[in-house]
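Input record (Table S2, row 358):
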Amino acid sequence: MDNNQIIEVLRGVLHPGKGEQDVVSLGMIGSVETDGDGVTVTMVFPKHRDPLTEYLVGAVRAAIFREVEGVGAVNVKTVVKDPDEGKPKKKTVNDLTLEELATVRHIIGVASGKGGVGKSTVAVNLAVALARLGYKVGLADADVYGPSVPVMTATEGAVPDAIEKENGDAVILPIEKYGVKWMSIGYFAQKGQALIWRGPMACNALKQMILQVRWGDLDFLLIDMPPGTGDIHISLVNDIPMEGAVIVTTPQNVALADVEKGVDMFRNENVNRRIFGLVENMAWFTPAELPENKYYIFGKDGGVKMAESLGVPLLGQIPIVQSIRESGDEGEPAALSSRPDGLAFLELARRLAEQSEQ
Ligand SMILES: Nc1ncnc2c1ncn2[C@@H]1O[C@H](COP(=O)(O)OP(=O)(O)O)[C@@H](O)[C@H]1O
Ligand SMILES: [Mg+2]
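Output record (adenosine-5'-diphosphate complex):
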């Protein structure tokens, strides 16, 4: 018997976890030694506690006994070797530190149970309104599937600069406009290209977009959360030191269950963050030509009741008016104006600032 003959026999031992591949092609045979009628095989396993270790050791021993003539003893040794040993480690998002957020006083998520309630509209206008009140403000648009900040602030073409830190890592500089520092995944996508990231990739891009940004000294960093209450949200709330959240809703009763889910995302015992309050968007309709009139098309005081039943403050009510949509489309947020809708956002900002000092 010789080593080559034994290796040929081992080519017949397949790894059941790896399709049709055999232990030799998989690089699992470290060495084969013969001494008289004894054979010693050293098997290499890439990780600890491979559940198939026992099985493969047995299969190798049996194959040699069965197929190589004149074998008296088979000794199979196992060693564990990290396949990436010696290679430089790539940095993962989990290694990103929170140092860029250390100069931010309040990190607040703007969330909703479902999409289309005007969450981004409220987030963008709230940011602008807080800046009008004199606060230093940033907003991270964390809606990887439908970033709206570039359009709502007319900064679509902007390309954020990156600088190198002393340790060689890169940090991104936010886009500044209307007195607010903006960051959006939309700045990194090509125009008109839909973002189809899913799961972990979207999650990592998101965290990077918050953690690797030179926010500088801020009173408020608002995070426009993606709609819904899935894994991505929980991971975001866990990894970013958010103090709490503002929940945006519309007055329809059907939205209550969604709002509850949104609230629970921050309030459940594992997360335990604060709910600063509810914002009732589209609370009433006011036509441009009848600015004194309020039409409660979704019912009156839905938001008040909702806030009461959830035990959270109602931070503000925003009417549904054409100028809010138009200013959003034009990239000139309504909160810049002194129209009634602009003042509603200023009042909302005042209430949030007040709550955050408590
Ligand atoms: N109070 C409002 N008055 C008029 N239009 C609004 C109002 N709030 C939101 N909209 C419009 O509704 C649409 C959806 O708003 P958006 O903020 O993108 O929602 P979300 O972020 O919750 O998906 C946008 O076209 C926006 O301009
Ligand atoms: Mg949105």
